[in-house]
Design brief:
Elements (H helix, E strand, L loop, with lengths): L3 H6 L7 H20 L1 H17 L10 H43 L1
Helix pairs in contact: 2-3, 2-4, 3-4
Protein name: RNA polymerase sigma-70 region 2 domain-containing protein
InterPro entries: RNA_pol_sigma-70-like, RNA_pol_sigma-70_dom, RNA_pol_sigma70_r2, RNA_pol_sigma_r2
Organism: Sporomusa silvacetica DSM 10669
Length: 108
């Protein structure tokens, strides 16, 4: 897997995961960094490659390997952002509830 063209021509089952990781990690990390920022990119990139390895048997070669990996990355980022948004809403609701509780308590 010395260049991107070679990595696209082999089914994932035949690809050495270490070579795949080394070839795609910088690209996926850069992509994820642009989407979520550098603070979360490292962990999320690692999670993406865990998912790639776990899902390797499902790759059907109907698209390029890179397209498939980027789709996994995009889905992981989307799920991560949804979790963050959900967590933020819970925190805001909790803060408002605490403020209301304290306000009610102070009135009496």
């Amino acid at each position: 897997m010395s260049n991107g063209k070679e990595s696209e021509s082999f089914p994932l089952a035949q690809t050495n995961f270490e070579n795949l990781y080394l070839a795609f990690w910088p690209k996926i990390h850069r992509y994820v960094t642009r989407l979520v920022g550098s603070q979360d990119a490292e962990d999320l990139t690692q999670e993406i490659f865990i998912k790639v390895e776990q899902a390797a048997a499902t790759f059907r070669s109907e698209s390029k390997l890179s397209t498939w990996i980027y789709r996994i990355a995009t889905n992981a980022v989307t799920i991560d952002k949804m979790r963050s948004a959900s967590h933020s809403r819970v925190n805001k609701k909790t803060i408002i509830a605490v403020i209301n509780l304290v306000s009610n308590f102070l009135r009496y």
